[in-house]
Amino acid sequence: SAKQLGRNHYKMFYETMNQEVVERLALESELRTALEQKQFILHYQPQVELATGRVRGLEALVRWRHTQRGLLMPDQFISVAEDADLIAPLGVQVLEMACRQIRLWMERGLPVERVAVNLSAHQLWEDDLAETVTEIMEKHGCPPQRLELEVTESVIMSSVEKGREALAKLHRLGVEVSIDDFGTGYSSLYYLKKLPFSVLKIDKSFVDDLPGDADSVNIVASIATLAHGMGKQVVVEGVETLPQLESVASCGCEIVQGFYFSRPLPPEEIERILSCDRRPFANRLPGARWVGTK
Ligand code: C2E
Ligand code: MG
Ligand code: MG
Ligand code: MG
User: Fold this and answer.
1) Residues with C-beta atoms within 5 A of ion ligand 2
2) Which residues form the EAL domain (predicted)?
């Protein structure tokens, strides 16, 4: 009967819900253990300067070495950490790892100019973020100009005045500040002008439609012109193919981060790439003639 069917549907729905809740609770308690046991690692993705093929910086991206489930990506645990109030301690561990790595690479003479670390909304709104960052940099002997902090456009625009103050505090520490996933939020250009930051990261969603989609080409070119006009650097995210690379280059973008050049890699592999060549990606640039570049 229809009633019976309804009841069964309800039961199925309930069981699915229940399973999700149980999964999430399990993940939450595993996250606590993971924080205690330091199961998180960072991978680093090169940001390539198109004029030279040199690595201008690296973005640090967190991964979780789960004891049973293997290597977990941020999409699989960041939101759980946020909901469970664990994003602050996770953020501290990420900053610690990045600063320690920066210092280690400096000591080894590796040409790593800067490392970008992602901040969550929760971290940005903490009153003592600037103090926390200062403490961690000092603890590891990491010069502020080697650290870049990424905040997404939507987080800042969710509360522009507060966002401006938070960015100003970071800016005063001497770290670079970048606006991540730009173009997906709803920035008023008026506020963009007032925000203290030095790098604009154009979101991958625009790059996905290059080079075929004329609107996306125009948007990327306009963002690049706007940012350069304000004296900001532009980093384009998510470039996967040579036609996309050629397209962003002709839009005036000067720094590219994407699978076309490299996926995010463990520190050992970054070291291998950076220690053998000052311009490791020169032969992948548009128009490169695949000759020796050393
Ligand atoms: P995001 O900050 O925008 O980082 C870029 C993401 O795009 C990374 O995914 C990177 O692997 C991916 N990506 C880069 N180039 C390409 C490409 O050419 N093709 C494709 N398909 N993807 C590309 P990932 O590592 O999975 O990180 C996802 C998001 O998780 C990040 O987006 C960031 O919002 C967040 N996240 C990562 N690490 C941290 C962290 O330490 N703390 C916080 N709060 N969030 C983090
Ligand atoms: Mg980022
Ligand atoms: Mg991004
Ligand atoms: Mg993103």
Assistant:
1) 118, 150, 180
2) 24-278
By most ligand atoms within 8 Å of CB, the mutation choice from 39, 71, 118 for ligand 1 is 118
Q: For residue 155, which of 127, 175, 185 has the smallest C-alpha distance?
A: 185
Task: Please name the amino acid found at residue 48.
Answer: V
User: For 219-278, what is each residue's pLDDT tens digit?
Assistant: 999 999 999 999 999 999 999 999 999 999 999 999 999 999 999 999 999 999 999 889
Q: Tell me how far CA of residue 233 lies from CA of 5, 88, 139, 176, 253, in angstroms.
A: 59, 29, 29, 11, 9
Backbone angles phi, psi at 112, to 5 degrees: -105, 105
Q: Which residue type does 87 have? A: I
| Cβ contact 66:39 at 8 Å | yes
Over 70: is that where the pLDDT of 1 sits? no
- Can you say how many angstroms the Cα of residue 150 is from the centroid of all Cα atoms in its chain? 6
Residue whose pair of structure tokens reads 């640090």 in the numeric block = 60
Query: Contact, 163 vs 195, CB < 8 A?
Result: yes
